[in-house]
Amino acid sequence: MESIFPWSGIHRLLVAWTIHISPILLSTANPWLDFLPPSQAQSLASELNDDLEKYCATAPDLPNSTLRIKRLYGFGLLPLVPEITTSALLHIVQQIADLPHLRGLIMGTRGIGRGLDDEALDPVWSAIEKAGLVVFIHPHYGVDASAWGHKDNGHVLPLALGFPFETTTVRDPNFLVQYRINSINAGCNSPHPFRRL
Fold it and tell me: Contact, 86 vs 70, CB < 8 A?
């Protein structure tokens, strides 16, 4: 049995329920599997999505809920790694859509290495839109360490400044407009305006 220490998952859930935060959306702490080769990243993402589904399914229903709403839902993990195939990503999007307690997915800002407006992701965006999934964009990479000079200054400053920069870039309406313009200029008729970010 898991402990009830302040840093334990059970303690955090009890606090959330005590202060009436419910339902709760869970996700991995970080959505990056880019340290793995594509086949391992796909396999691990699939396993983690299944594990999160099982965990959320064990949660009790909200009290007095006639709709049988669970207390826990989750964001699945999309294995955005360089050289992964579109079919592998589409398979994981479908897996997430098919799992009843996963309501969306979490992803970083680099996509498969060339940003979120990479044309290679267009089929993935279409599948996400068709499935009605919410996308949680999570910053991670920060500002390139070379911006701080030749001395190793650790990771705090690049992340402290980089996280807000990455988040602002993704949520900035100008980025979204630029994404649509890039898509239209590239001859893409579906710029994926759904943007459930």
Answer: no
Q: Which two tokens stand for residue 73?
A: 């839902």
Q: Is residue 175 part of a domain?
A: yes
Of the candidates 44, 32, 129, which has an alpha carbon nearest to the alpha carbon of residue 82? 32
Could you give the number of structural domains in the chain? 1
Query: Does residue 45 contact residue 89 with C-beta atoms inside 8 Å?
Result: no
How far apart CA 29 and CA 20 sit, in angstroms, is 22
Alpha carbon 54 to its chain's center:
18
CA distances from 71 to 10, 17, 60 (A): 13, 9, 6
Taking alpha carbons only, the member of 166, 163, 169, 79 closest to residue 124 is 79
* Full residue range of the structural domain in which residue 30 is found: 9-185
pTM of the model as a whole: 0.73
For the stretch 107-130, pLDDT in tens is 887 889 888 888 899 999 999 999
Q: Which helix (H) or strand (E) holds 18?
A: helix 9-18
> What pLDDT score does 170 carry?
52
